Amino acid sequence: MSNPFSLEGRHALVTGANTGIGQAIAVGLAQAGAKVTCVGRRHCEETLTLIEEIGGTAESKLTDFSDPMAGQTLFAEGDIDILINNAGIIRRDDAVDFTEADWDDVIDVNLKALFFTTQAFAKAILNRDDQGAVVNIASLLSFQGGIRVPSYTASKHGVAGLTKILANEWAAKGINVNAVAPGYIETNNTEALRNDPERNKAILDRIPAGRWGQASDIAGAAVYLCTPAARYVHGAVLNVDGGWLAR
Fold this sequence. Notes:
Blueprint: E1 11-15, H1 20-31, E2 35-40, H2 45-53, E3 58-62, E4 82-85, H3 100-127, E5 132-137, H4 150-170, E6 175-182, H5 191-194, H6 197-206, H7 215-226, E7 237-240
Parallel strand pairs: 1-2, 1-4, 2-3, 4-5, 5-6, 6-7
Helix pairs in contact: 1-7, 3-4
């Protein structure tokens, strides 16, 4: 019997793969045997090096998802059958002061680009009568409101909703669509929170695991959702949050 957790022979594309969660997922996919295409608005040399060091195979492509349609060309050729939608940005300000530009910038990258990139991926899969897997990176703010991040919260609620509707449409067509909702993870996006002593303490006091998560904590969940072991998992939003939502 073949290993249901192996990704040997698969080809994954990870957006926002140059740092943080995206980088950890890219490395995790390579460890499971997948070839990985690392996509970012900056070159992903560090990620490629990490993958090469473990004997994996990877390549890098430059794509700026501030253009929501930029991902439409990523699947025109090749055999990509796994898509990790990780690219995302955040803007922080009081709701009464939040600007239209900050709203549009976040929604364009986190939600609109995610949808149209996934649409292009699905078209390629269906055109060649293949099977595929999509993992969207959601957030605790797919379920909660947060503070001072209105466009980010709206976008991540949208990611959870898109995950479910796309699963409904594509589950019977051989495409698994799921999401991982990271908790408070040590990344660039959370640096401001970790540098605020009061917010940092309040967050840690709420997490049953008693620590901020590491990017590598997200990788295992994302990789699992891409493997044959998860072939009957559709439309799930898997929380990886140290127990935050259980509190």
